[in-house]
Amino acid sequence: MDEVKKPKITIVGLGLVGSSLGLALRAQGGDYEVVGHDREPTVASQARKMGAVDATEWNLIAACEGADLICLALPLAGIRSTLEAIAQDLKPGAIVTDTATLKQPVLAWAEEFLPEHVSFVGGNPILAPAEAARARRGVEGASATLFKGAQYCLTPSPSADPDAVQVVSEMVAGLGAEPYFLDAAEHDGLMAWVHDLPMALGVALMQTATTASSWKEARRLAGETFAGATEVLQDAEALTHLLLGNAENLFRLLDLFQERLDALRRLVAAQDEEALRGLLGSLVEARDRWVLDRDRGRWEEVPRAEMPTKGELYGGLLGLGGSWTARFRREHGEKK
After folding, report:
1. Average per-residue pLDDT for the chain
2. Is 2 exposed, middle or buried (0-12, 13-18, 19+ CB in 10 A)?
3. Could you confirm whether domain 8-182+306-332 is CATH 3.30.70.1230?
4. What sign results for the dihedral spanned by CA atoms 311, 317, 319, 322?
5. Alpha-carbon distances, residue 294 vs 34, 151, 177, 290, 291 (angstroms)
6. b/e map of 274-308 (b: 16 or more CB within 10 Å)?
7. Where do the structural domains in the chain lie, given as residue ranges?
8. Do 77 and 69 touch, CB atoms closer than 8 A?
9. Predicted structure pTM score
10. How many helices (H) and strands (E) does the chain have?
11. What is the 8-class DSSP label of residue 319?
12. What is the CATH number of domain 187-270?
């Protein structure tokens, strides 16, 4: 009996997230091939040298052709064109997932371009602040433990095969992250609070500061507080797509934020020390609780995703049974 061909995993985008994904997958020692593609040859070469992939392919179509699982580790701006480019060359039963910050537009593009025989499972890993800081280093900051303890949002397409959803869930658990299932609209609404609104405020702060007549002098005094608040300003193209992509949710939150800002201004203008101290005290406590819960991974109010048993966990991708192997054998069979 001839040996069954190894499953192929393709990672498109070999920056921090893509190369970390490759390192984590290869650290599992699974019986599969990890192929990488990046439009920047130097990034692809560095990912291969650090062992994030078994091989790299400069041609996007060739990288994805014959792949069983394709991970698009790309910013939102790159997802649509990539889905359109690879759609007609994906094998029947292939699974596509991504790591973009917004999910409604991505699922709409997947519905538009992917054929019926391909399943799409949206993803968004929420990295801990210490790990997210690696982003400034790009591929050089890649680590097999990047996703350890992370909440990993999963938003399957309504047409996704249940086995495909299970495969991605098992993969996420194998990375050391916790799968968190929610629908795309809910995901984007929540991300507007904790991602898009802070970005918009950083943009407004930088614009306010740099257009002020005193900026030439003030910039000499700008330290860690200012740097942290404006750190989002690193990629104008990515910011544009993210802010426009979640505009409806963002508009609503900007209105709420303006109300809170006006209330804070009234307290300061009135020199109401007691009320201000009470407000700030409650907010300090709320933030401390959030940091503690985040660091301990304690989210009692958030329903946990139903996970496979220990014996099944990630077994498919490791060649030990489970969803991946079940799908692969049904699609390819064993050569006699």
Report:
1. 88
2. exposed
3. no
4. positive
5. 32, 10, 13, 6, 5
6. eeeeeeeeeeeeeeeeeeeeeeeeeeeeeeeeeeb
7. 8-182+306-332, 187-270
8. no
9. 0.85
10. 15, 8
11. T
12. 1.10.3660.10
